[in-house]
Amino acid sequence: MNKQLFKLIKLAQKATKSNEVPVGAFIVYNNKILTKAYNNRRKKYNITGHAEIIVINKACRKRRVRYLSDCDLYVTLKPCKMCQEVIREAKINRVYYLLDPLKEKENRYNTDIIYEKITDNSLLNKYKDILSNFFKNKR
User: Fold this and answer.
1) Which pTM was predicted?
2) Selected catalytic residue, list 52, 85, 89, 106
């Protein structure tokens, strides 16, 4: 799985190169990555262009299903409220993430979805560097 998790970092780096907030995500089905995506809000002029929404839509189209209850979502940053609702609608039960949002004010996450923090410190530190450098360069 570590090899797969490193792909989250690669996706975040691709987002950065596209001048997007560095968030990457992929869907796992039968222990294999089914689809992957990164933010494209600016590039596509799409307010819903979050990595989580894109990857869920791609997975539904690829499998020709509406629900992904037999899939897991992996994402670099814990999903926002909008993405959380899409995850719930897609019936994804388990979300793995690297980092909590910096501006999270309260526990605003649905309890019917299991959120598990990925505890690989080397990946976490690499992602933190990518995220902080992105915002440092924006200032």
Assistant:
1) 0.91
2) 52
Is 52 catalytic? The answer is yes
Cβ neighbours around 136 below 10 Å, total: 8
* CB of 43 closer than 8 Å to CB of 18: yes
Residues of the chain with pLDDT > 90, as a percent, come to: 76
User: Tens of pLDDT along 9-36?
Assistant: 999 999 999 999 999 999 999 999 999 9
Task: Determine contact, residues 101/81, Cβ cutoff 8 Å.
Answer: no
Q: How far apart are CA 137 and CA 80, in angstroms?
A: 23
